[in-house]
Please model this.
Amino acid sequence: MADTSWTSSAKSLKGVILDLCGVLYDSGEDGGIPIPGSIEAVKRLKASDLKLRFCTNETQASREKFVAKLQRMGFDISVCEVFSPAPAAVAVLKDRGMRPHLLVYDGLLSEFDSIDKTNPNCVVIGDAAEKFSYQNLNDAFRVLIGLEKPVLFSLGKGRYYKETDGLKLDVGPYMKALEYACDVEAEVIGKPSSAFFNSVLHDMGLQPHQVLMIGDDLVNDVGGAQHCGMKGLQVRTGKYRPSDEKHPSVTADGTVDDLAHAVGLILGERAGPL
Amino acid sequence: MADTSWTSSAKSLKGVILDLCGVLYDSGEDGGIPIPGSIEAVKRLKASDLKLRFCTNETQASREKFVAKLQRMGFDISVCEVFSPAPAAVAVLKDRGMRPHLLVYDGLLSEFDSIDKTNPNCVVIGDAAEKFSYQNLNDAFRVLIGLEKPVLFSLGKGRYYKETDGLKLDVGPYMKALEYACDVEAEVIGKPSSAFFNSVLHDMGLQPHQVLMIGDDLVNDVGGAQHCGMKGLQVRTGKYRPSDEKHPSVTADGTVDDLAHAVGLILGERAGPL
Model:
């Protein structure tokens, strides 16, 4: 039986953060397809008095491009509402005066146009997929091992994701490979990093206890948000697996079938008893 | 000043195990070149009353092929004296009735000719170099994650090695990638595994304290041998780095400039005072 005790806190909510892939849509080579009911659910949240932001570890396309893709699918979403690792990385690099060697998907390169990349003093890796060739990983390794103090930034640390043609390795395994090769620990930019979630909360002007995160990734979405003091709700779409509900270290505040059901429960609770 | 206190135990030695790459020769795209004095040093050991074996984590060519390469360089060496991970892996696979999905260098495939590879129930990875494409690593990942109980064998766990054109990622980083992706721990076959060293000792018919390991890799050669109860000597050739002499957890029983010097000291000590 579904545990709906989390809905009792819905009345005190001021904002909601949504993950994108696996919550709004399922990805695939064709660009992906909306999850039934999710377009309407986003509309309902936007029409409510709740603040809404989107928080993704998507790093295969620039923010502009994948927001345009979501708009074409029918979602009411704009670039300034979306938080993704690449713009956060650019801010960190500028702040610390670092010049990256990039190992990222071609579609993401434009995000780093404003950054000096000559004579690199750090490495940034994202979900590079087919670009994770031996040669490219070895090039990144050589840059890192040649630095007096190797600095490795990883855009997320997901293990794998699901596309229409099957499971695909995410950036995390390659982060581990470079960590081991160079005996360093990567700095993760993106979920589940607290710095990343806090930047979203800062933009919303809200405290953690006022915000609910909804995602399909138990560790990176739910666990990461909970670690920051938010509540975390898992949907049974995207990469959700039944074993998540018995996870040894992360327990979602609630688990619901999909975003449409989550939004229905939240808004229903806020409307109060009939 | 060189610490030569280890030579006091040379008189009680019954056998010596030599690493190959970085001790006998330096590898490179052209096949590699002998390290000065090493051909003569092997000859001197063979002419002595010490038992001699060779122990390598080489997994880019079959044992037959790289022994032939060493013979062409001028080394007195035969296949039955050489221990390498692939034949050890074949023995383990047969013993446990396992059918591998192989992610290894093309040159190594023939070692596995006698093994059934249909409907795989484990993954074996070696130093696959350019074959570590995203597609190939993802294929190995899909096999592993699809198994009820994923079993991953790694032929060694080296971080990187040096070729004439620079450093190259070894199998270890890719082992770490698959371990993280599938939340498993790989079984390492090859140095520094104790099972691997013990199989060499068994073949020699000697006890660990009677045998000295000589290698350029502080952790895998020296540390691995010491863990088995042997003494371990590091040569300052191959992948040796000065920082090895201040390593936090592994201290060689001795460090010498190269194999020729090591053999000179051992045989000189055994000959006794003039």
